[in-house]
């Protein structure tokens, strides 16, 4: 997705109901890969997870703490805009990542996001809004703000929390490519089909709803009998006209190095993958770019 195309940013959402499947690692790895390959793409990651791990990795501890203390996080933006009715601009919350600062940017989150989400639900329910309307308010607000951001970036990536919160639903509605990281085991697949069915119709563009199938990314793949059997079943489910999801060709292998990076409390600005890890995420990023471009052309042709 080179910036020379002069096209609005492709919006990518990384989501799954299940935790522990590698959403944040995949979000940050894709962001850094897209921004780092030949320094061609300008990438924005919007952190919608109250754990704020992506913010911590990309900003570094000191910069994230400063952003939280100064109220320059996504949760403060939502509270100001919806609860306090202030004229706010999400663009003002953008900050450069500590690594690749000329190409990679982040709108950080904080642990207060979960509290703010509940506050928004209470605030709007007192005004006789139901949960679907709460999701719509958040979605409409983000959509308005993305209009001011899309021409500044080649890709915008949402990192979301486990489950389907109001903010995750908003991100799903607004995204061009929906990525669902999934470990090929029985437990991780229990809710996969239901989740994919729910996100396939979540869109602010009702005309394009039928075309939006999520893309499952096999993550933490092991060469065990169970993983390989589940992987075959997943690929069979992703084939045919009646499929509920697509699957990436690229598989992210189980890797002690990737696991070490994902749990590193000393991370300060960049995921330092080895050559194998960098290569596999580069291949995944190429697939994501191809899908985003192909879908954009398809939508334009039918508009």
Keywords:
globular, 303 residues, disordered N terminus, alpha/beta, eight-stranded mixed β-sheet, Rossmann fold
Could you describe the 3D structure shown?
The protein is α/β, with parallel strands linked by helices and 303 residues long. It has one domain: P-loop containing nucleotide triphosphate hydrolases (Rossmann fold, 3-Layer(aba) Sandwich). It contains 12 helices and 8 strands. The chain has an 8-stranded mixed beta sheet with strand order 3-4-2-5-1-6-7-8, sandwiched between helices. Helix 1 packs parallel to helix 2. 44% of the residues are buried. The N terminus and C terminus are likely disordered.
Give the CATH level 1 class: Alpha Beta
Named CATH architecture? 3-Layer(aba) Sandwich
- Reading the helices and strands in chain order gives EHEHHHEEHHEHEHHEHEHH
Form type:
globular
Question: How are the SSEs placed, and which strands pair?
Answer:
Layout: E1 10-14, H1 23-36, E2 43-48, H2 53-59, H3 61-69, H4 74-83, E3 95-96, E4 104-107, H5 113-125, H6 131-147, E5 155-160, H7 166-174, E6 177-182, H8 186-189, H9 192-200, E7 215-218, H10 225-237, E8 246-247, H11 256-262, H12 275-302
Quick structural overview:
With 303 residues, the protein is an alpha/beta fold. It is built from 12 helices and 8 strands. The protein is globular.
């Amino acid at each position: 997705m080179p910036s020379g195309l002069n096209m609005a940013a492709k919006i990518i959402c990384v989501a799954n109901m299940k935790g522990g499947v590698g959403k944040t690692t995949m979000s940050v790895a894709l962001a850094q890969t897209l921004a780092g390959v030949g320094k061609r793409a300008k990438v924005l990651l919007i952190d919608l997870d109250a754990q704020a791990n992506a913010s911590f990795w990309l900003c570094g501890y000191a910069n994230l703490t400063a952003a939280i203390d100064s109220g320059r996080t996504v949760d403060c933006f939502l509270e100001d805009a919806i609860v306090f009715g202030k004229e706010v601009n999400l663009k003002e919350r953008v900050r450069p990542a500590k690594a690749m600062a000329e190409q990679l940017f982040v709108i950080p989150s904080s642990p207060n996001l979960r509290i703010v989400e509940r506050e928004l639900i209470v605030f709007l329910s007192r005004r006789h809004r139901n949960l679907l309307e709460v999701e719509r308010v958040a979605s409409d607000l983000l959509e308005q703000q993305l209009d001011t951001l899309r021409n500044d970036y080649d890709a915008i990536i949402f990192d979301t929390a486990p489950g389907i919160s109001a903010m995750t639903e908003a991100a799903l509605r607004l995204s061009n490519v929906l990525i669902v990281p999934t470990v090929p085991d029985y437990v991780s697949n229990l809710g996969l089909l239901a989740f994919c069915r729910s996100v396939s119709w979540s869109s602010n563009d009702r005309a394009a709803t039928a075309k939006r199938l999520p893309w499952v990314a096999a993550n933490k793949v092991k060469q065990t009998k169970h993983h390989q059997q589940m992987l075959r079943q997943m690929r069979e489910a992703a084939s045919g006209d009646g499929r509920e999801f697509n699957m990436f060709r690229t598989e992210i292998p189980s890797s002690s190095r990737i696991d070490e990076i994902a749990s590193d409390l000393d991370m300060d600005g960049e995921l330092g993958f080895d050559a194998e890890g960098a290569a596999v995420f580069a291949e995944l990023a190429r697939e994501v770019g191809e899908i985003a471009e192909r879908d954009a052309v398809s939508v334009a042709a039918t508009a």
